[in-house]
Amino acid sequence: MSKPESFPIEKIFVSTKQKKAVKPETVAEVAESIMEIGQQEPISIRRDGDRLVLVEGLHRLEACRALGETTILGVLVTAELAQHKPQLAERPEVEAERLKMARLKQLRLEKEAAEAAMAATKRAGATDAPRIRSAKAVRNDPKASPGRTAKLAPKTLSDWITQQKSSGGRY
Q: Alpha-carbon dihedral of residues 34, 36, 40, 42, nearest 10 degrees?
């Protein structure tokens, strides 16, 4: 790998496809970092005739441009290296970070699903509770008609067990 050099920012060509990938919040973070500690990682560029073409380091380039810099630290790579540059997924630290983020996303989704299930259970319990109380009140009311108490009896064994638990009865 060649030594990092200083290149004029205005001479570096950035493809339209790369320009669309710029994230302003990332550029702001990188610019802040460059202001505090300087540019730590050089960008990768290649020669294409008279111009320089950006290979890697879009956000660093845009951050330096936003800071008003006229030059940027970069490394010249050959066209073959530019085409066969290592993919981010091939780097172990990037792969580890990707796996960590996937695990965190999975945990967050599981937590949200559990919270939604609890909320649904609470809503269902709130709508069932008055019906169970009214059924209990009708059963304990000596003036209630026998037909009325039969309609409010639980339809399934699980409903009966739930009713027994809520009323404090034993089953």
A: 20
Cα–Cα distance between 136 and 163 in angstroms, integer?
Answer: 9
What local confidence, expressed as pLDDT, does residue 149 receive?
47
pLDDT band per the 50, 70, 90 thresholds, residue 97: confident
AA identity, residue 159? D
Q: What CA–CA distance (Å, rounded) separates 38 from 28?
A: 14
Q: What are phi and psi of 45, to 5 degrees?
A: -135, 160
Nearest of 38, 89, 97 to residue 64 by alpha carbon: 38
The one-letter amino acid at 125: G
Q: Both ends of the chain: CA-CA distance in Å?
A: 78
Residue 131 structure tokens: 């019906």
| Helix 24-37 and helix 58-66, axial crossing angle in degrees, nearest 10 | 70
